[in-house]
């Protein structure tokens, strides 16, 4: 903790130095900046008003359109490097959970698990789903705004730890414009491409249309190499010859967006938009170090097809001096995944002898009980918000509104034995016994077929009063109500397991099924649960502005995440968790705005936070763990040192730990164990929160210079983060290990003239194997065991290997 208090002292010292105009350091910097232009000040809408970023009394991490282009940002993996407060866990391009300021318990992102702690928005509408954050192509994007810390008053339930907003460029009636970008890239000898384009067409002085499109193919870098596995029960050995392939984890992403802007009067506008993507992903994005560098051994097909579309409508205008805004939208997403379950099959057979229960139609154990898993997810999300805001230049100003959201998720998860005539060494797999299969689902061992609905209703408001010309007080409140339900079927057939799933019979003998209820094409309904709750979140902020370019603020804010439902009958619903945030921040713009430096310190208490893990029958269980405390320092600087040289950087130090022993649950009753010794704890007090490096930061330098009549540049970026864990439980950390510290270097150079530019770049110059995740494909304590002839089965998801790219871009 010494470094935290040192940081607090440095913040106080920086406030003093920032306004000491006669200091030697100030004079030197001012002299160095002679001839330099001011740092671009971005206009943001983070507080649901248009404001200059340096005027907002909150710490913001912003990537403007110029930075997005200069840093060669295409997707989430690119922009997360330059947002120090943001961390994440991922299994692949469209399976990413986002965290801010270390508010992470390492959730397993199960379809029936907790809601996210970070809200991700595209323009005015949230795009967060239980299946992970949508990975939107970043072409023609105006900016990325990251708001660390609870945003509970203006953004609500899914913004407990903060909010990420991706803001697109809007149609303009001012002039016609268009552009395109063509890129070719190579990683590990495998080639990819990215083709993007936009056009903005003013129809007349009231109507404009903007269209954007992209077609991206990313090269693979994981090799599926030859391997064998032997089933303990039958003694039969399979191999993966049909699936051996180099660089198999490729992806193809085609998408676009369109928007129409209508401004019938000077004070009113209507914006209708639609955006969608169709993404095909092959292979897995984790490798097995025990097999080889970037190598795996997979024994069945792995594929992922993710399609989604979002339509939105924003109407804004003035009624007198007040601005009225309506924002509403609809999101539909279909995610179809096919996953190899050989690890599951091998380990359950070897450790528990499960192969004896996986039988064919004749009643004999299957010779090669090869399994796979199919996830077929359908999401919808409806959002409506109506808000009113007073003029922003008044001494007293406010914003208030109403919000409604309904998310649905139709979940089909089908764990089955391969039924496509899988052949291996001349052997064709037998049919799984119809008597053991889930009724109506041939070959299926386990079925989840259920509908999840999460509803959120809220009323919110924030008001600011200027006590003096320099001192302002903001107060905000949000009242909320949530209502979440889970309905359908999960489990085995009666012939396989009478404890979980379908049990045949009528009336009282139907032990697990609920009489008189049905859902889709399930054998019966054995799940009909709901939970609701209400409460409020708060925000109070005091801001002192020394002048138009420098301010200091103190904020107290709270956030929440709704409670939810455990499918397991022995476990009741889990409660909402909350976050209390105390924050002190400083914003400075110096030397005619050629130097901008912002920094913030915070102290957060995460109360009764939701923690998910695999329980009996590998069902995800969610418990309310005790408390965690998170302290940190965030800082960012941008300096146009000369007319040619610009420097920027940022970093976040985060100390996130449990503050009380987490003792787990009595598995027979589902009740939390309230106290225990350190040695008996699931996670002892002082355990670091997962996916949270102590430090994450970056530094970028860009030098521009003329070459004949071209504007040339050279640029280098360095990112670094310290080691971190992937689990909260001591047993998970012991088996999965630590993700080590790593650094990356990105280089680029190019030239432009009259709207035409050519750029060459190298990402991950040193070919670092930085780790984004470590995981197993079945329970950690099972799949991490050592079996004869089986490589260690802990997968590592690496950052993208060294990639060379050449890009041609033109704008008209």
Helix content: under 10%
Largest sheet: 22 strands, antiparallel, barrel
Mean pLDDT: 89
Please write the CATH class name.
Answer: Mainly Beta
Q: Judging from the principal axes of the Cα atoms, what is the shape?
A: globular
Q: Briefly note the structural class of the backbone.
A: mainly beta
What are its keywords?
812 residues; 50% strand; 45 strands; globular; 22-stranded antiparallel beta barrel; mainly beta; 7 helices; 5-stranded mixed beta sheet; Maltoporin, Chain A
Structure overview:
It is built from seven helices and 45 strands. The chain is mostly beta strands and 812 residues long. The chain has a single domain (2-811), classed as TonB-dependent receptor, beta-barrel domain (Maltoporin, Chain A), CATH 2.40.170. The strands form eleven sheets. It has a 22-stranded antiparallel β-barrel. A hairpin with a 2-residue loop joins strand 12 and strand 13 (190-202). The model is unreliable at 1-33 (pLDDT under 50).
What's a concise summary of this model?
This protein has 812 residues and is mainly beta. Helices cover 7% and strands 50% of the residues.
Fold blueprint:
Blueprint: H1 2-18, H2 24-32, E1 43-44, E2 51-52, E3 61-64, H3 65-70, H4 76-79, E4 86-90, E5 96-100, E6 118-122, E7 125-126, E8 128-129, E9 132-133, E10 141-148, E11 162-168, E12 177-187, E13 190-202, E14 207-218, E15 223-224, E16 228-230, E17 237-239, E18 251-265, E19 268-282, E20 295-296, E21 303-319, E22 322-340, H5 342-352, E23 371-389, E24 396-417, E25 423-424, E26 427-428, E27 444-466, E28 471-491, E29 527-547, E30 550-561, E31 577-590, E32 595-607, E33 610-614, E34 620-624, E35 628-640, E36 645-658, E37 695-707, E38 710-721, E39 724-725, H6 730-736, E40 738-739, E41 742-753, E42 756-763, E43 771-775, H7 780-783, E44 795-798, E45 803-811
Parallel strand pairs: 6-11, 15-20
Antiparallel strand pairs: 1-2, 3-10, 4-5, 6-7, 8-9, 10-11, 12-13, 12-45, 13-14, 14-18, 16-17, 18-19, 19-21, 21-22, 22-23, 23-24, 24-27, 25-26, 27-28, 28-29, 29-30, 30-31, 31-32, 32-35, 33-34, 35-36, 36-37, 37-38, 38-41, 39-40, 41-42, 42-45, 43-44
